Amino acid sequence: MTYDKRRYEPFAVAVDLAVFTVREGVLEVVLVERGEEPHRGRLALPGGFLRPRESAAEAARRELAEETGVAGGFRLEEVGAYSEPDRDPRMRVVSLAHTALVPRLPEPRAGTDAARALRLPYAEAGPLAFDHDRILADAHRHVGALLETTPAATAFCPPAFTLGELRRVYEAVWGTVLDPANFRRKVLGTPGFTVPAPGPARLTGGRGKPAALYHAGPATRLHPPLTHPEGPRS
């Protein structure tokens, strides 16, 4: 009965989204060019403010669809809360950041207050507006950890793939070159990660023998994890 909400300064809650895909061996992220102040004309992560009667997850999906035309069909994961007092010049804004690693991501299309929507290689995606460089880096670590503990990388390969094709997905997301023999040993030593595909091996263009083909296995978690060569990402 003693609580008085008027004693507290109001602030806004927003969502920001770092949505990644892998195309032709390159990790890409969806960005928008801001069409309004602050930071008009600068690149930023898609996002916006929560409405009074929606959850953060609902707002994230709505804002992504409104600003980029990318909608549905994939799981968004929380990255963290960003609450520095001066992160937005308009007012106090707390952002709840989300990320996703999405196969077959459609070409983004600008909408609402975004002047342009595009995909850029992760390595070229900065500097961004607000504190979005920090959010993007944190989201990158999150999706890197996702590949350590889940078979998500197989979604970016053909239905029947070589271990070399799978390795290149990891290299794109992790931003490092992996030893082929060590990678093969770890993948084949992880129960349910991959299963042999029937049919002949595939010529891969090198001088070696044709490469064996695999399908995604039944595992939903990798035990043991397929850790980054420099150690776990999170």
From TrEMBL:
Protein name: NUDIX hydrolase
Segments of this protein annotated with the region Disordered: 198-234
Source organism per UniProt: Streptomyces wadayamensis
Tagged with keyword Zinc: no
InterPro entries listed in its UniProt record: NUDIX_hydrolase-like_dom_sf, NUDIX_hydrolase_CS, NUDIX_hydrolase_dom, WH-like_DNA-bd_sf, WH_DNA-bd_sf, WHD_NrtR
Keyword terms: Hydrolase
Pfam families in alphabetical order: NUDIX, WHD_NrtR
Highest taxon listed in the record's lineage: Bacteria
PROSITE patterns from the UniProt entry: NUDIX (PS51462), NUDIX_BOX (PS00893)
Start and end residues of each Nudix hydrolase domain: 10-142
GO molecular function: hydrolase activity
Lyase keyword on record: no
